[in-house]
Amino acid sequence: MASLQDIATAASINLLSAFGFLMAFAILRLQPFNDRVYFPKWYKKGIRSSPTRSGASASKFVNLDCRTYFTFLNWMPAALRMPEPELIDHAGLDSVAYIRIYLLGLRIFVPLAVMSFAVLVPVNWTGDTLERSKDVNFSDIDKLSVSNVADGSHRLWAHIIMSYVFSFWTFYVLYKEYGLLATMRLDYLASEHRRPDQFTVLVRNIPPDPDESVSEHVQHFFRVNHPDHYLTHQIVYNANKLAALVAEKRNLQNWYTYYQNKYERSSKRPMTKTGFMGLWGNKVDAVDYYTSEIQKLSEEEAAERERVSNDPDSIVPAAFVSFKSRWGAAVCAQTQQNRNPTLWLTEWAPEPRDVYWDNFAIPYFELTIRRLIVAVALFFLTFFFMIPITFVQSLANLEGIQKVFPFLKPLIEVESVKSVLQGFLPGIALKIFLALLPRLLMTMSVLEGYPSLSALDRRSAAKYHMFILVNIFLGSIITGSALQQLKTFLEKPPTEIPETIGEYIPMKANFFITYIMVDGWAGVAAESLRLVPLVLFHLKNAFLVKTEQDRSEAMDPGCIDFPVNEPRIQLYMLLGLVYAPITPLLLPFIIIFLAFAYVVFRNQVREWSGILARRAQAYDYKSNNIPTSAAGVTEHKRDRQILFCYPSPPCSHPLVLRFLQGPLRVGFHQIPPAGTGFLIPLLLIHQNSSLFVPDFESKQQQTQEAMIKDTLERATEPNFNLKTYLKDAYMHPVFKSTDIEKPDPLVEEEDRPLVATTRIANKQSPSSSSASSTSSRSHT
């Protein structure tokens, strides 16, 4: 069991590691040859140029100005000085809302830590329960927790009262923060620019029609049902094979560029092998080989383009339908279009660069089956992943190491080595073991068939949050193999599950402290280094970059890894709220993480990153579907579920209440029945905590804001041609660089339609066609 000395040793190691990462980051960002790695956003916006100077050749790559090294940490105050409105203009509201999560955590946990150390720590420390207990192995950390308070002691009233104080303070801070974000969001909506997704809805599961093509059917349906608001539409093609050919061709062109550059530098014809990655096969001239391969692939690509554009089977039953106003799109996106609720399904269209085109080829009826299969797979992955985690955790303590590697026993018994292992090894072992999990969960989300990258990230984040909640929080609390834990939960009544968890909560404070230090302190510092983008940029710059455009394309602005960072902050918020009344020693470690992460991520947003900046997308607050844009690199985005990151007290404090509740014996404690009655109101408050959150996301407000924006634009830009603006917004990316002859969707209209559409008018007379065109222009 780790002692205060072991925790201090681990804290020293992790603080030194974090400081080392920050030192490396501060020095590397000063070097001229790394400038595009650490300031890509400024280059993309055209407000920063290369610092490479003439003169000594070394100065072109290494910063020889010694004065800059004395101020290498100036990025920290610079990140904090940038005003929030300027940061919104620079990186977007989504990024600002994300980094405010860490500020929110500080506002919650700093007062909680002060109150805990002022009230609860003296109450716990002056108890003598552990010292009087026989055959109980404990450390100084346990003496600071509620474990040192006797059963039925009146000292437990301090913990109960502080639970009320902690809850009301958390609700108050959340209420104020939600109100501030609501104001920021409404102000931002009022000032945002026009975007295609504001006027467009995604229509799925379009029913087949024997007399009309998909395009004609869509046009006819919306001209009939939305005659005053329908503007245009874009059908969706299954171009997955074509996209794969384009990507393969781009890869071959990169290799061709590499060998061409190599040939120009050495004047010697480069050679390569025709096998995989040039590792085996016949040895041939590299330039000629890749020239011929690109030519073959270009012919195959042209044939596939022709097939996709002319084959009706390449059209999927989905379309992006655009309207003349935001109000019309809002009404369509939020209403049922057909008496059959499974047909003509509408939702807000994602921003064009947020669309995940590969999943549109999945038949709609398969989506439910896929999501059910993924849910079952996630269940088994979550619970049976405890087996390897339990094995790794068994090696992360002294007893487990001595059992598996008995020859290390003399080394482990050395006091300094023992402190390092107990205070550092458990957290780093779990961190390494979970490294590949986010990629696996993202693959599972892709298989579910969601149509946008932002939806994939949200689903991946939800899966990761559930995973770490079960495996890291619950799995670390309830020791044993996965089957044993599953059996424990299945055999007990649901009402006793919190009691079972409550028995083990105080015992695992040591592990969570080490995990926070490894994952939170050193992990966040390592993210600032941008090691992977740094290596990739220099590899591209050395072998592929030939022009300034190539160098610009080699820059990766990167993004904050939302599917990983969002569940992590939720876990830390949960740990803080759970352990505040039980083991307050955990709170300072969470506070250090929050302060550290706030500075690091604020700097990332300012200099090179945004939340999902690379995908040009973001997240609406909770379930709100009004698209919101972000300025700078993150413009043309949608903000979704940022507030999902915020802590949910109803998920945490019931565990604490069950731990303190009587007259049942829970953990080490038993309080009088009066104490039980005193806890009931707090449970009710937690169950109704949503009352503290202002409702700023009603559908009425969405349509109202849309109408205001439409009215203002009609007054300020009466001649704006919206149809031209939206014409190619939702065309598949592989088609945008070519002029493809699309099938005319206006030639198969039935002779006697119920509603005279534009295509029938075109058939009837040239004059009516001209009049219709003039009318369309006047409406736009």
From TrEMBL:
Keyword terms, alphabetized: Calcium, Ion channel, Ion transport, Membrane, Transmembrane, Transmembrane helix, Transport
Protein name per Swiss-Prot or TrEMBL: CSC1-like protein At4g02900
Compartments where found: Membrane
Domain CSC1/OSCA1-like cytosolic: 198-359
Protein topology in the membrane: Multi-pass membrane protein
Chain intervals with Low complexity compositional bias: 765-780
CSC1/OSCA1-like N-terminal transmembrane domain ranges (all copies): 7-177
Protein species of origin: Hibiscus sabdariffa
Lineage top rank: taxon: Eukaryota
Family: Belongs to the CSC1 (TC 1.A.17) family.
Membrane-spanning residues: 6-28, 101-123, 156-175, 372-396, 416-437, 464-483, 571-601
Region annotation (Disordered) ranges: 741-780
Domain CSC1/OSCA1-like 7TM region span(s) in chain numbering: 370-605
